[in-house]
Amino acid sequence: MSKIGVDVGGTFTDLILEKENSEAEKNKVFVHKVPSTPKDQSIGVIRGVIEICEMAGIDLNEVKTIVHGTTIATNAIIEYDGAEVGMLTTKGFRDILHMARHKRPHNFSMQFDVPWQSKPLVKRRNRIPITERILPPDGKIETELNEQDVREAAKLLKKQEVEAVIICFIFSFLNNKHEIRAKEILKEIIPDIYISCSYEVADVIREYERFSTAAMNAFVGPRTSFYLRNLENSLRSKGANAEIRVMQSNGGVTTIEGGSQKPVTILMSGPAGGVIGGKWAGDLSGVKNLITVDIGGTSADISVVPNGNVRIMNPRDTKVAGYPILAPMIDLATIGAGGGSIAYVDEGGAFRVGPRSAGAEPGPACYGKGGTEPTVTDAQVVLGRLDPNHFLAGGIEIKPELAINAIENNLCSKLNLSVKEAALGIIRVINSNMSLEIRANSVAQGIDPRQYSLVAFGGAGPLHGVDLAKSVSAKEIIIPPAPGINAATGLLATDMQYEFTRSVLITISESEQSDLDKLNAELNDLMNIAQKALEVDGVKSIGQKFTRIAECRYQGQGFELRAEFPDGPITLNNKDILIKNFHDSHMRDYDHAFEEQNVEIITLRVIALATTEKLNWSKLEIGDGKNPKDAIMYESPTTFEDGTVLDTPRYDRNKLKFGQTISGAAIITQQDSTTFIPPDYIATISEYGNLIIRES
Predict the structure, then answer these.
(1) Among the listed residues 284, 308, 280, the one whose alpha carbon sits nearest the alpha carbon of residue 294
(2) 234: Cβ–Cβ under 8 A, 6 or more apart, which residues?
């Protein structure tokens, strides 16, 4: 049986297939790219899956697992193209989603946009107050749920033809009885409606963030659920019997059902796969400190992986398109910088590149699909760094004359530059944009890039890797074996993962045995829920692993940090271990800790993990020699940063062997990407096929 990873990007859909043979044979890995189909991503996915099975010489029914990274939920919110959502909430709290926390997105700007007001996830006319009230700190019911209010609200929302409904009551994280009952009533009156209860989506403190998360889940829910179920049905109709999994924002995978019920957990599905793939590439060479840079056709995703640990964002930072989301996400930044990023001169005469992209349709001008605006890819073609006869683009024919025309017609006359100068300018601007973002996610957070290797991947990543590493002083560049589909590779290099939360307010520093008894009871209950979730997905107890986390803060702080529990029940004797873990976490994030201050537990989190069989990448044959002649295909003129044009050899990466070195200037081509090595740099081929590029 075999496994497939398929990642949908803005321009291309990337696939990887690991073919399992008899024990006497090595596993074989196949990679493939097809153009994405933005109107219906499943079309490109199914086409790619069928084609890569044909490449591997297997039938679709021989595939045992398909892991999918998708942007369907992300696109719904970015494009503000989600469901019409209704809301039931406690009387007096109708406008929480509008008022938020009175934060200005940009403190010193007079022209800022507040997305939760300008583009509300739930329109005010669809927010209906319900008589009920639960009180802190123990969830006591002060006012019983008025079921008639719920019935009248359900009838009104049905009349207004909403597609989804959220139920968000104040303090439901302390007592979810009213939300459960309101959902039952809604199902009676609108049986086919998509419903999200806040306790199901984010069972934690903070009413605005909890309401916003539930609203986001419902806003993207119907579209995402339809897509995932339609994809599954379409694959089944083609003969697939595989388990179908979906990458989550936290770097783990879930089922189709899990992604359909909680699509808020897959908002960063695609970028998360890239980070996991970057870590996997680092592991191949034993490198732990990594800066991953995934540059595709539309965007660039940047993340820092210190000491082999993928970072999870703090709750205060988890936002998507400006909306706060209380869902675990890998700590990464996304900017509009990719091969399809459009270069233009703005109204003030400034030379800009991105964030607007040519996307898959029409794509860069050189694709010949109707695009007329110059892009980063067009600039690479003009500079001779992308060869028309060795381009990755899934069978797309490159037309250099169209790239030249696009740059000449849109930039040269406005900037008084030659075509070559304008093309170099495009590359410099886009590299500057990305390097600034890398510094914001490393230097600005106390991380020294000089101690880190930069992993460059995505279709365009290896073309920019050296320049980016040089700009931030990274110690070396790592180009994975299949960089163009590395996000898809990450899909086959991760585990099943679920997270379950519950608010429990305890001052652990001053806790007594009765407090700890309550804490242990809640932890055990969460553990049982997590265990059942894995069992439903067919994971045997022997393959289950659990991590217990307390989200803590000093008394008076606004947000929490994660701290791991010690093994076994928490007791008066070992609670200091948890407290110390929190102090250490605070020290890592803020470079100080207040060890004399009381520590509060706000939220319990249980992470359920099921380890999966990882991608088995074969070692390369041992080679020798510098600049291996048998891998050279031809030479072609190439323009470098200083404007120098050199006849530069093209190497076929498939012919490179372990231990060989290539001195720049050089260009290394392969099916899914192109690697650019300037003069004064040397690339070494590692045991598993990584290119390690350093200054000579």
Answers:
(1) 280
(2) 42, 46
127-130/85-90 β-pairing? parallel
Q: What is the pLDDT of residues 467-479, one digit of tens each?
A: 999 999 999 999 9
3-state secondary structure of 183: helix
Instruction: With CA atoms as reference, report the closest residue to 392 among 109, 13, 124.
Output: 13
Look up the pTM and report it. 0.89
For domain 496-610, give the CATH number: 3.30.1490
The one-letter amino acid code at 526 reads: L
Asked if 248 and 609 touch (Cβ cutoff 8 Å), the reply is: no
How many Å apart are CA 270 and CA 36, to the nearest integer? 13
| 245-280 tens-digit pLDDT | 999 999 988 889 989 999 999 998 888 999 999 999
CA distance 167 to 87: 6
Q: How confident is the model at residue 105 (pLDDT cuts 50, 70, 90)?
A: low
User: What pairs with residue 454 in β-bridges?
Assistant: 291, 477
Residue 392: its pLDDT value, please? 55
CATH tag for 2-76+226-266 (out of 3.40.50.740, 3.50.50.60, 3.30.420.40, 3.20.20.140): 3.30.420.40
Give the residue among 621, 604, 631 at the shortest CA–CA distance from 525.
604
Give phi and psi for 151, each to the nearest 5: -65, -45
Residues 469 and 41: their CA atoms lie apart, in Å, by 33
The number of helix segments (H) and strand segments (E) in the chain equals: 18, 32
Q: Is the pLDDT of residue 20 over 60?
A: yes
